[in-house]
Design brief:
Elements: H1 2-20, E1 24-26, E2 29-32, E3 45-48, E4 51-57, H2 72-89, E5 97-104, H3 110-120, E6 127-132, E7 142-149
Parallel strand pairs: 5-6
Antiparallel strand pairs: 1-2, 2-3, 3-4, 4-7, 5-7
Helix pairs in contact: 2-3
Length: 152
Amino acid sequence: MTRFKNLTLVAASLLLLSINSVETRAEGRTAYPSTAVDGLPYSGVVKAQGMVYVGGVLGTKPGTGELVSGGIENETRQALNHVKDMMELAGTSLDQTVKCIVLLTSVDYFPPMNGVFREFFPSNPPTRSTIVVPEIPLGASVEIDCTAVASG
């Protein structure tokens, strides 16, 4: 009986992973999984009503829940790389970004985060709100959320 139960759990897990690895469509809305971390209980990016919404992204090593090393600049760079990848998955690009929200755990991180932000948005940058918060999941220093116009 235990072996059957284990096989059932494995099958259920594989089904959930396969569901999370494909886009889903519903009434003018297309949701895509996160390209940053597998198996999240929410979509990484959603395309709807001519817009693309990338939810809060951390600077994790691709496919893991582990932060990149090297501090705020590396975390910011990795988070923005994830944002870029998810926008491309939804058929748009960073240059179509209209708004970003950045969460930081210290106001001291504002200048180095800005430096990296400029690398990704060298001209015509989006509007942005930056909020200092007491804590971000995984002990991250930065979390980034962006909205873009859908291409095409």
